[in-house]
Amino acid sequence: MEGDAFSFLRNDFSDRGIIEIERLASLGELIAGISHELNNPLSAILGYSEILQTLDMDPQIKRYINNIHIAAMRSAKIVEGLLIFLGKKQIEFNTININAVIKQTVSLFEYQMRTNNISLVLNLASGIPHIKGDFYKLQQVVFNLLMNALQALEVWGREKRITVSSDFHSGVIRTIISDSGPGIAEDKMDKIFSPFYTTKPKGTGLGLSIVHGIIREHGGRISVCSEGHGCSFNIELPATFDSLCLEAKDNTVISLNRRVLIVDDDELVLDAVSGIMEFMGCDVVFTTVASEGLVELKRGTFDFVFVDYRMPNMNGIDFIETASNFTDIKKFILITGDVTLDTEAIKQKYNIPVVQKPLSFQELKKLISGDA
């Protein structure tokens, strides 16, 4: 397919290219494993902090708790950013706001920009239409372009500035990412989107070719401009006028009066998720052992059953298949921190929700209340 981000691999292999791909594949597997381990404690930190944020307490203590929650969210985004960079997120086209993509990605670079004395200018148009796209793939595009800009400015001796803007005109959402660095030589402009072409001593030459492929997958265009010094990447994507995405956060305390079983071998996650459920008025039974979870299901009636995918002796899918012999499969919700899991295939096969860790108060509330 012409728009395939990796179609170049079919006809542009070289010894260097194969070595780089093998290195990236190995790094991807390593980071995927680390991400799975990090998402469990992050689920616990987010869960506890979100419960505490709803309580009445000393304002200073509440500020500390809010800072803990912000730090946990930033950590989750850093993990997510690594997965985005390595293509570990599945394509999922939804109605999204490009400004939300930009804001979440920019937050990953706050430390690097601060320590390198790089100023950031955000000029994002308000009220622009949404687009149909994969949030994480588009975040990968912004991530790669910001990384290139940051690297160009690290050794730049003049003003260091990155500007990100968005606007809407004639049915097109335009995003421009610019830097004030040394720019790109004119004789290299027509090569920068080519696979394995790089001007960096240790670069792979894959980043911009992948960016180009992702934008084409979304029916858009990307171009580059560099005159004298400085460099600007111009991304154009078609707008959609479907119903708007609502991004409001609501941690309102509600009494859902549901009976819930949670099966997860990580005690921190188990305790945090149980705490959130109980806080919402649910009657919660939990266990860290899959076989004991099956016993509980035979013993009592539950409205929802949350099951972790990775557990010793029996994984979440095996648990659900076994339990479905005597329990309605529609009650099950699979939770996972495994980013390599084909969640779409599971959703289609079993017609059950699959949610990624770290879990949030809002996400759990939607699942239990039936709004998801």
Please describe what this structure looks like.
This protein has 372 residues and is of the alpha/beta class. The protein folds into two domains: 89-246, Heat Shock Protein 90, CATH 3.30.565.10; 259-369, Rossmann fold. Helices cover 43% and strands 19% of the residues. It has eleven helices and twelve strands. Strands 1, 2, 3, 4, 5, 6 and 7 form a seven-stranded mixed beta sheet that branches. Strands 9-8-10-11-12 form a five-stranded parallel beta sheet, sandwiched between helices. β6 and β7 (231-240) form a beta hairpin. The radius of gyration is 23 Å and the shape is elongated. The two termini are 34 Å apart. The model is unreliable at 1-13, 201-205 and 243-253 (pLDDT under 50).
> Which percent bin holds the helix content?
40-55%
Tell me the Rg in angstroms.
Answer: 23 Å
Computed structural class: alpha/beta
How many strands, which pairing sense, and closed or not: the largest β-sheet? 7 strands, mixed
The CATH superfamily of the largest domain is known as: Histidine kinase-like ATPase, C-terminal domain
Order of helices and strands: HHEHHEEHEEHEEEHEHEHEHEH
Number of strands: 12
- Average per-residue pLDDT, rounded, comes to 79
- β-strand percent reads 15-25%
Q: Count the DSSP helices.
A: 11
Please identify, by name, the CATH architecture of the largest domain: 2-Layer Sandwich
General shape: elongated
CATH topology category name of the largest domain:
Heat Shock Protein 90
Q: Unreliable runs, pLDDT <50, ≥5 residues? A: 1-13, 201-205, 243-253
Please, how many domains?
A: 2
